[in-house]
Amino acid sequence: MRRLYLDRNLQYVFGVTLMAVLGVSSIIPALPDIMKGLHLDAQRIGLVISAFTLPGVLFSPLVGILADRVGRKVLLVPSLFVFSGFGFACFFAETVQQLLVLRFFQGVGAAPLGVLYSTMIGDLYTGPERGQAMGYNASVLAMGTAGYPAVGGVLALLGWNYPFLLPLLAVPLGLAILFFMQTPEPQKTGSIKEYFAAAYRRMKTREAMSLFATTLLTFIILYGPLITYLPILLSHRFGASSATIGLVFLAASGFTGLASFQLGRLTQRFGQRTLLSAAAVFYGLCMLFTPHAPSLLLTIPPVICFGLAQGLNIPTVMTMLTTIAPMEQRGAFMAANGLLLRLAQTVAPMIMGGLYAMGGMNAVYTGGFACAVAILLLARFCIVNIDHNAPQHPAGNIDKTA
């Protein structure tokens, strides 16, 4: 098998993935400095994140439709420039209101990126290479998520606004994609009504609905027990500092990258359903042992289990979705999956907050364990006949005008 990570087209996709996670990860360390610099209180600092992520919720369906109907590159390149321009403009914001408006429009540019990188991998590769490429891309995403806070933290030492220089990196990436990337493009066939009817027929199949449910459950675990409540547990029970908490999450990201980098080999040896089942078991182990860890050091093994689960689960689900979706509706599939992801981001803290109010930290992790069991049941009894035996849809027309 060729060294797929050296493929120039895949490297461009890696760049898009890194831009997709830059908008939030790079400014997290600067949030306290933004509060001081713009006189923003703790209750409203979350708006700096929400203003950026809101367009993803509002425009995900439209992004999927545009990606399928007008083409991937036609949507991607302007999105990178919008993301870069408004992100850089945040550097010059003098008031909270200015920053929030600019962040919203930066989010408009970012909204298509998360949909397009997975869609384009599905377009570019088939069979075992598709899973391998998804795994490599998940490794890149994990590295970006882990590395951007460190870069943003260093830049924030110069001033709260210096992390907003990083979006400028999207400009050379956009130009390189415009002139050099060869992208398969879907063939626009039929009316918009026929497009919606065909997409709906495929999305309501048992396999697709099961994969969508897996995404929802996965990100409820991530944004509930992990992102929202693990820092509280580490801080209140063990007195962990912010830096220590960051290192614990870094361990998870590292093992996510490790597992996803080996995804191609693991898929060929064990099959996709088995990997999803293994991921569910790792999620369950994390949920069982984290709230009962007797020391800070012993929280790391269950967190590593979570990292392994993410590395096996997310790129596998993406691979399976892009396999069952024909190119002409693949953008819609990825947009629907992204919408469920953002729904989980929204409802997970509320669901787990209700469980915490009823039963404390143990109830939160019991809820997470229930999600892990549900993922396991879906993998074993609902997700079938996708793997590499699923029909491979034509790759469409390669755009060689670049």
Automatic annotation (TrEMBL):
Transmembrane segments: 12-32, 44-67, 74-94, 100-122, 134-158, 164-181, 211-232, 238-261, 273-290, 296-318, 339-358, 364-383
Principal place of residence: membrane
Keywords from the UniProt entry: Cell membrane, Membrane, Transmembrane, Transmembrane helix
Protein's cellular compartments: Cell membrane
Coiled-coil ranges from the UniProt annotation: none
Recorded topology in the membrane: Multi-pass membrane protein
InterPro entries (UniProt xref): MFS, MFS_dom, MFS_Efflux_Transporters, MFS_trans_sf, Sugar_transporter_CS
GO molecular function terms listed in the Swiss-Prot or TrEMBL record: transmembrane transporter activity
Pfam families reported in the protein's UniProt record: MFS_1
Domain annotation Major facilitator superfamily (MFS) profile: ranges: 9-391
GO cellular component: plasma membrane
SUPFAM superfamilies per record: MFS general substrate transporter (SSF103473)
Protein name: Major facilitator superfamily MFS_1
